[in-house]
Amino acid sequence: MSKRLLIVVVEPDPDRAQPIADGLREAGDHDIRIIAEQSGLARQVAELRPDVVLIDIANPSRDVLEELALASGPAERPVAMFVDRSDEGMTRAAIEAGISAYVVDGMRPERLKPILDAAIARFHIFQQMRAELAATRAALEERKIIDRAKAVLMKARGIDEEAAYALLRKTAMDGGKRVADIAQQLVMAAGLLGR
Amino acid sequence: MITLRLGYVPLIDAAPLIVAQELGFAAEEGLAFDLVRLGAWAQARDMLGAGLIEAAHMLVPMPVGQALGLGPSLPAMDLVMFLSHGGQAVAVNRDLEGRLRDGGHDFAFDDARAAGLALRRAVAGRLRVGVPFHFSTQSELVRHWLTASGFAPADLELITVPPPMMAEAMAQGDVDAFCVGEPWASFAVERGLGALLLPGTAIWAAAPEKGLVLLRGFAETREAETGALMRAIWRAGRWLDDPDHRGTAAEILSRAAYLNLPPELAERGLTGRLTISAQGDIRHAPGFIAFNAGAASFPWKSLAALFAQRLAGRHGLDPQEAMTRAMAHFRTDLYRQHLRPAGAPLPGASQRVEGALAEDRSVAAERGGMILRADGFFDGFTFDPAASLSAN
């Protein structure tokens, strides 16, 4: 039996860190720690001496972990570089999913794979959720701004709602722009003119 | 129109990529750039390695580190041109600023020897200096300057801090000083956390800072796109080196999609007119950042050798082998091939003695003459790759 692994997840957003940690627990009997605080990361990781560190590929703190991975002797090196020792397919899948994994020297790829698979799955779900949320928010914002632009036109030109929308749409099409962009400009201009 | 994905980290020296797209230099070459803002230098390397971006804005020593096997095993990466020289500043925290002033230092912002000696007198024990990445020009500048100023290696602790977090690291007391690319040094001054002590150019007049890095597989198989990409960026660099364009460049770079900061902040480094202290003292640093002038974009193989020798020394590698390996990744051949048609001045040789030019100098070029930028170190250091390679 191999020993339990200590896996550290570096993630400031608790809504994101928690599902990743849950996914990792399902993947095996591991000890999972979440580090949310970015300052002092090097010290925290060095003290914990984890077997695996998982971190968003775009997290600026990665560059701090890189330094740890390059520490002079293996004895002082709290993390090594995962991509050194594993197959290229796994590396690419992780990079595409937006994850980087730092792993202690000598971990076998077959021990790492289930961990990484679980992390990749959770990262995907979260990214999807975030994209959907952003799209919904943007759509709502656009609806609001178009409604306000229609109101401005109705008042200024004495036309009804349908005609106001038609006018917005025609202007947008003529200018090769989106209705929401024209609406935004109109509302801004109306604000400047004090209407 | 062919779309290329280019990765950049938000700094003023990403300007050639952004300007090439925004002002149509890319379109002129039949390219559209999909500019991908990155959060970490390691991300630039990994995404390039996985083929998720076609080219990356990278710290010049990064491809050297890769060539020496000090990074993850990814496909071979080549630096095809430099994007900038200089653009860094050294900052000290308020406490050190006070001690330096008490010791009589004038913060003239142009004398690395005086500043280094003053700092040596002001610091009793170890000095903790933030640098953006393990493989960075900043790290080399700080080591060179401070060891030449009387700091023993044991007195120095270099700590990696991502550029946007540099000011916060100073606020938290994690670092006493740092060396970082603009606008992140000015950002700390603006927050009243420290004072600027030196521009990078005061330590090394022409320190190569960022390079355009491609996968070797891409550069060698997709020649047409590689050439078009290099020419678009080279022309953007030429546009950027007109002093009258620097204000406009600051506006473009500062947009929400790019740096997302007040343009006034980016303008400081781009114009070389920097506010160095919380009291609002202003210093003018001519040539604070260069993109193209004086053959700044030519990727001298001797610079690959210089960085390789230093990295080899710190990582216990054979220096001769390291220099030879690194030089193969600085593609002066591709620079000549692709930028000759654009009319770029091309030097006769591809390596030289580094640090030898105290002033700008005109030299013979492939066609006619050209001007090479002054590249002296503050302490007169020179590096001759030929001598280092033949030495045993």
UniProtKB/TrEMBL annotation, chain A:
Keywords: Phosphoprotein. InterPro entries: ANTAR (IPR005561), CheY-like_superfamily (IPR011006), Sig_transdc_resp-reg_antiterm (IPR008327), Sig_transdc_resp-reg_receiver (IPR001789), WH-like_DNA-bd_sf (IPR036388). Pfam families: ANTAR (PF03861). PROSITE patterns: ANTAR, RESPONSE_REGULATORY. Residues 126-187 form the ANTAR domain. The modification 4-aspartylphosphate is found at D56. The keyword Signal does not apply. The keyword Ribonucleoprotein does not apply. Residues 6-120 form the Response regulatory domain. This is ANTAR domain-containing protein.
UniProtKB/TrEMBL annotation, chain B:
The keyword Transport applies. It is found in: Endomembrane system. CDD domains: PBP2_NrtA_CpmA_like (cd13553). Transmembrane segments: none annotated. Pfam families: NMT1_2. It comes from the Bacteria. The keyword Chaperone does not apply. Keywords: Cell inner membrane, Cell membrane, Membrane, Transport. This is ABC transporter substrate-binding protein. It comes from Paracoccus benzoatiresistens.
